[in-house]
Amino acid sequence: MLDAEARVRGEVAYAVDLELPDMLVAAVLRSPIPHGRIVELEASEAISLPGVVAVLTAADFDRPGGPSLLYGAIIPDQPVVAKDRVRYVGEPVAVVAAVDHAAAQAALAAIQVEYEEEPATYDPLQAMNSGAPAIHADHPDNLFVHGKLRHGDVDRGFGEADEVIEETYTSPLAQQASLEPHTAVARWQADRLTIWTGAQAPYTVRGALQRIFGVQPEDVRVIVPPLGGGFGGKGHVRIEPLVAAVARKTGGRPVKLSLSRAEEFATVTKHPVVIKIKTGFRRDGSLTARQVTLYWGGGAYADASPGLIRASVPRAVGPYRISAVQVDAFGVYTNLPPSAAYRGAMSSQTTWAYESHMDSIAARLGIDPLEFRERNMLHSGESFCTGETMHDVHFSECLRAAAAGLGWDRPKTRDSGRLCRGRGLAVMMKSTIPRSVSECRLALDADGVLTLYTSTVEMGQGAHTALAQIASEAVGVELEKVRIVGPDTAVTPYDATTSASRSTSMMGGAILDAAERLKDRLREAAAPIVEVEPTALVIAGGEIYDPASAEDRLSYAETLERSDLKSIEVAGKHSSQGGLDPETGQGVATPHWHQGAGACEVEVDIETGKVRVLRYHSASFAGRVVNPSLARLQNDGNVIFGMGPALLEEMAFDQGQPVNPNLSDYMLPSILDAPEELGSELLESEAAEFHGIGEMTLPPVAPAIANAVFDAVGVRIRDLPITSERVLRAIKEGPSG
Amino acid sequence: MSAEFTRPESIEAAVEALGEAGDEGKLIAGGTALALMLRQRLIAPAVLISLDGIQRLTGVSSSADDIRIGAMTRLRQVEASPEVRRAIPALAAACGEVGNVRVRNQATLGGNLAEADYASDPPTVLLALDASVRAVSPAGERQIRLSDFFQGFYTTALGSGEILTEILIPRRPGTRRTAYAKYRSRSSEDRPCVGVAAVAAFEDGVCSELGVAVGAACETPRRIADVEALAVGQPLGESVIRDIAEGYADGIETLEDLRGSSWYRTEMIRVFVRRALEEVASVGR
């Protein structure tokens, strides 16, 4: 990693480290109730307190020349601060800016709010029932999106089956739990806003702020320092409107807002879901039909959920050949914090269901789980239930690589007394974003330094390192001579987002495009010097030459100098195509499929139900590996990360009140929980494009572990996380089918 | 909002500072628990009195009658103390299982007891060992048996002006075996779902004395004398162990939290009382 040493030394400056002259701190007054009316809000005392510079409430919005209250990625349903109604515990009601934290806290305490509590609803299935309280007046059934896929005749498919299995799987609310909390600093100079924020999609933030404040795009400048983790939780607009709106009232003094851990838990969560999955199959192991119905809890505001829930539709089926498929994905409002992408977005939840379900079918048929999957696996050239033809898919190779790493064909390790061992595996497919664009600029100067201008966000995943390597190799400049600038929307060009494991592929593609243009410009510059046509010139190893006289070579620096150029700057672009019909789910789900697999051996203590993962082997398809050590760390990191939602992580609520909004009560895996044997493979193929690798080995973790638990003790766990208590209860209830 | 911070260098000065601050004062030992409470705004003292500057409060000493551990001795120091490891290995083990090494290097044994968090390890072992604490106040010094010390969630017998200065663990004649079985239902750095300490003395293979304490299962660590007595006068065999495990499972009204339901805790008491007793029995044989 390029800045590895700075990271180890603690020298990387995050948004939270930013200090500006005259900077104020913001604090947020939050709703103490899950649902109800704001009867009265009195903030006049707060503004008169010493050290308090600004107090922001809903009264500051929707006035002539003022900002708009409502925003949202797709449905503008979310107020910057609550107006007449609060919809979850922790929803912002007012924001203060003060000279220090003590003054800010005193101001919050001085704001009087009277609430009238109303009935609330928390579970997506219950929220859809008639009689459940409506959270938004214009959505009486609390339903905000219904994604669909229709392929073949499922009724006929179930009719043709020898047997049908139907199961229900659940995955709870969880939290992205980045080490660095959401932090943003906003400063207004005249009518222009500069905001430094830990955000994964700087241009999305810019667009939202521009709309809220009614200014031109160039009047909002978004600068993104390195992030201390994102994992999807910083993928859309989060705290930026709060801090920008209060900063507009400080007479130009900058304001910083940095959330506490408890506020993190009230700001963004992983979607909870109930998944009903039903599959018809024949005795030979072939699949005749699959129906999947998903009830996604979106929390109080839709945020990016409509798009994510639509994207969950093709991710709900699995990489299998099934002649008839029907998927319905419902997005439901609840009185909980808004949900958003969580590393392996939506696929983690769907893979939990379909890969556990696949083992239930394999067990019923008495076929080895690997063999059963192999019989149904999709290969390149075959058609998926979206109607698209699969290309460059290696699900089978990924799964076999993981299984081989574990030693699937070797005899099982024997149980010893109360400790029972079992093995399990799982494979997943995930779409990335169709119809998205990444742009960049490359500048080569006369000193031989190559500068990459990019809005791709470095959040610890090593994106800037990988992009610098791609630029270095494509242009033929040593890695040490590559500099990266950005993201800064005033300087670096558009990029849709750093998420969905798209950066290496999409921004990498833009860099390759720019590199070709840069080399064209170099050939044009060199042509008059060498006195041949530009097209006759060859560029290799950082040098330009005419193959007819290959001993005469020009370096880039020499070429620029002799052409009297200080630098050459070019732009590059890469875009993806596709999209699905909203009624049928037919079309192209993704420019390429993300592919990953895992296989593990676990040990279950039958007296306690505690599951220990002894060995884990993962594999992902990388297309082309850019940086082998970082790529391997992504695979391994995903496995350890994935053990959290598999075994430990769940946000607990009591009547909408968070019970464990801190990292002492909310359990993340410790490094001591990591399997002692952790293996990983990165598959490549000839002339393949770059594939993202940031999430691929995560979704298989939970089902692989659950399948291994089933193998060990014969019980099927269908609710995440796989807690010791759940396993013990299931053992005491007896073997399940 | 922000508290005044003082760092007295003698116990007398600390007692005086605490007396002056009254209800507005809080003692800070290692600070690992207190800092979390401050951050979560569960407490808001006006004065923080650090015990860090009082040399006398740190260290392990031993006499023919007892082992004494200063209240400010870090858990890591207790874990590593040759004296503790030799005489009461279960206490060293329990201190070595708290949180992670960063916490153990900072947290103190006295602070751990005074906090009286139900989900904790050292109190369970110390209760099984019949330990006492010494406390100092303007009224003088007194010794409190741990069985009287823990009174409920985060509640101890310490008076508002009283400072815990030392932990005393009595020595017993004969061979004594100790074990601590910590069960974490969640991550490897979690607090205990249940913790069981067993202390047994044997004479010619016959159990002459048994102490069993169960921690993290209810408000305070618990011993049940009637059940302990089942073992006395006979070898610690399979059926006695089972009876004692049942006795504890039946005798403790367990609480429910994110580490497990009441039902689950009762099950785990049965399992881990047995495992702790099996450990002292196998060592004792």
Note down, in words, how this protein is organized.
The complex is a heterodimer of chains A (737) and B (285). Chain A has 737 residues and is an alpha+beta fold. Helices cover 27% and strands 28% of the residues of chain A. Chain A has 3 domains: 192 residues, Aldehyde oxidase/xanthine dehydrogenase, a/b hammerhead (Aldehyde Oxidoreductase, domain 3, Alpha-Beta Complex), CATH 3.90.1170; 318 residues, 2-Layer Sandwich (Aldehyde Oxidoreductase, domain 4), CATH 3.30.365; 139 residues, Aldehyde oxidase/xanthine dehydrogenase, molybdopterin binding domain (Aldehyde Oxidoreductase, domain 4, 2-Layer Sandwich), CATH 3.30.365. Chain B has 285 residues and is an alpha+beta fold. Chain B folds into 3 domains: 47 residues, Uridine Diphospho-n-acetylenolpyruvylglucosamine Reductase, domain 2; 113 residues, Uridine Diphospho-n-acetylenolpyruvylglucosamine Reductase, domain 3, CATH 3.30.465.10; 110 residues, Enolase-like, domain 1. Chain B has 12 helices and 14 strands. In chain B, the strands form 4 sheets. Chain B has a 5-stranded antiparallel beta sheet with strand order 4-5-10-6-7, with helices on both faces. A 4-stranded antiparallel beta sheet of chain B has the order 11-12-13-14. In chain B, strand 13 and strand 14 form a beta hairpin. At the A-B interface, helix 3 and helix 18 of A face helix 12 of B.
Rounded mean pLDDT of chain A is 96
Strand order of the largest sheet of chain A: 3-7-1-14-11-12-13
Major sheet attributes of chain A:
7 strands, mixed
End-to-end separation of chain A in angstroms reads 47 Å
Supply the CATH superfamily name of the largest domain in chain A.
Aldehyde oxidase/xanthine dehydrogenase, molybdopterin binding domain
| Multimeric status of the protein | heterodimer
